[in-house]
Design brief:
The chain contains four helices and two strands. The protein has about 80 residues and is mainly alpha-helical. It has one domain: 434 Repressor (Amino-terminal Domain). A two-stranded antiparallel ribbon has the order 1-2. A hairpin with an 8-residue loop joins β1 and β2. α2 crosses α3.
C-alpha cells in the first residue's frame, strides 16, 4: 500500500484522517505524514493495511502499466 492508495481507501470508505487514526489506534499526524509521502515503520504500515482490509478494501497492484488502485469489496462500518 502506498500513500495514494491510503487516501483512495479512506475516500472509498467515507473516512477522514481522524476516523482512520481512531480505528487504527494511530495519531492523525502519522496518517497525514504517510499520505504526504513519509515512510512508516513496517509494523505501522501493516496495521493500516489490515484495518483497511478488515473494512473491505482490496489493494490492486500495478500490472501491465495500468497503475495501482483500491477496490471496495464489501460494505463497511467504521
Amino acid at each position: 500500500m502506498n500513500e495514494l492508495q491510503c487516501r483512495l481507501a479512506r475516500t472509498a470508505l467515507g473516512w477522514g484522517v481522524r476516523d482512520l487514526a481512531k480505528i487504527a489506534n494511530l495519531s492523525t499526524q502519522t496518517i497525514s505524514r504517510f499520505e504526504k509521502g513519509d515512510e512508516l515503520r513496517p509494523t505501522t504500515l501493516k496495521k493500516l493495511r489490515e484495518v483497511f482490509e478488515a473494512a473491505g478494501i482490496e489493494f490492486i497492484d500495478e500490472s501491465d502499466g495500468k497503475g495501482f488502485g483500491v477496490r471496495l469489496a464489501k460494505a463497511s462500518d467504521p
